[in-house]
Amino acid sequence: MSDAILLVSHGSVDDLDDLPAFVTNVRRGQAASPEVVAELRRRYEAIGGSPLNLISAEIARKLEAKLGVAVAWASRLFRPYVRDVILDLAHRGITRVGLVPLAQHSAHVYGASARSAAEGTGVRLACATNWGLDPGLCAAFASRIVHALGPNHRRLTVVMTAHSLPRSVIDAGDPYERDVRAAAEAVAEVVRARTGIDVRHAVAFQSQGMSGSGAVEWLGPDLRTALDDAKTRGDQGVVFAPIGFLADHVEILYDLDVEARQMANDRGLSYARAASLNADDDLIHVLARIARSLLRDG
Fold it and tell me: For the segment 42-88, what is each residue's pLDDT rounded down to a tens digit?
């Protein structure tokens, strides 16, 4: 039997001309209006394009070197598609794949779609479950928050963010909101242990999607509400900590570093952001441990 690890990210585009197709995939086959695509293109251009695919490839390279087994990466919603990568692995003689979603709080969603994609390929999948409470992951996020706080942290709120979902998904029983909030508490506890101070923190859900329907209710509170609350409390600033994301993408480089920064400035609040994990060694260490357990137990 030959083993491999497959990392799966949300997905992005390298060529902005692919944005219409990408957004259609995000919207489950419903094409977006030209205005929505144009706005999304403007955001990508404002940050010089998304680095997500390059980061995913770098994570795979570093993890392969650490594990000594083949590590590939794919995207759930665009090229390289999961099924195409699994088929390529099968052609290379791989018969068992440990799948690690690069979306720790949505592992159940990624696992289900990957199992469907693997049908008929001859490849057996072992899929990681929610790993958002992994102690190493929480410690990695906490270390970056501590660095972003600096010495003047008594009049700040750490706003821990994750991607929003339609409220209907949560109401139908998805554990996403509960898991994100549990992770935020775990990260905050590590921050408190390292600083010796009970740093104020809040949870917000960002990047409400381009659903095309004003009738969709999104999981909140959103960024504006979190910033209004900080202002009302008399805070001097905010530190955003996107603990629902592993790597830089448009949701961080634009939605936080551009939009949220401006919203903070408009309220007279200083802005800082905890760095993303990207392909840093502490994340690679966590992924390696998860990957080894999949190959051992799968």
Answer: 999 999 999 999 999 999 999 999 999 999 999 999 999 999 999 99
Q: Which residues contact 291 (CB under 8 A, 6 or more apart)?
A: 5, 63, 67, 71, 98, 100
Confidence (pTM): 0.96
Query: Do 264 and 150 reside in the same domain of the chain?
Result: yes
Residues 164-204 have pLDDT tens digits of 999 999 999 999 999 999 999 999 999 999 999 888 999 99
Residues 143, 269: one domain?
yes
For the chain, the farthest-separated pair of C-alpha atoms sits apart, in whole angstroms, at: 61
Whichever domain contains 124, its CATH number is 3.40.50.1400
The three-point CA angle 49-241-37 to 5° equals 30
**Overall number of domains in the chain:** 2
Element spanning 152, H or E: none
